[in-house]
Amino acid sequence: AKGVAGGNVGGCPGSDNCVSSFTSRAGQKIEPLKFTGSKADAKAKLKAVLAQREDAKIVTEKADYLHVEFTTDLMKFVDDAEFLLANDNIQMRSASRVGYSDFGKNRERLQEIRSAFEPCCN
User: Which residues touch 29 (CB under 8 Å, ≥6 apart)?
Assistant: First the structure.
């Protein structure tokens, strides 16, 4: 995992196997998850969404931060995702550990999580 610096998730390297809500590179930019209500409720819902996924394992949990490992079905590649709770959004970063391209898998996975998460949380 890249880790949090300056209150933000990390950006992405030049490879095509990473997306982040804190990057300016067009092909790697993804919007953060939006929520209303409390951070505690948003975190609880995010954890519930992740618990529904067979490919997800939370490896680090802090008050406003989750590091999650996603394991692909076929080749058992591990991707690292990070979620950082802010006041009204959750920054996201997801990157493959190996390879140059992920064929859009990190973006696709975070969009699936977005669909299950939003709207949240009143």
Answer: 19, 20, 21, 23
Q: H helices of 1-122, where?
A: 39-51, 105-117
Q: Assess whether the previous peptide bond of 121 is cis (omega < 30° from 0).
A: yes
pTM metric for this prediction: 0.91
- Return all residues near 88 (Cβ < 8 A) that are at least 6 apart: 34, 35, 36
- CA–CA separation, 30 and 20 (whole Å): 6
Task: Count Cα neighbours of 21 within 13 Å in the Cβ-side half-sphere.
Answer: 22
Digit-coded pLDDT (tens) for 24-45: 888 899 999 999 999 999 999 9
Calpha distance 32→92 (Å, rounded):
6
Give per-residue pLDDT as tens, 93-119: 999 988 777 888 899 999 999 999 998
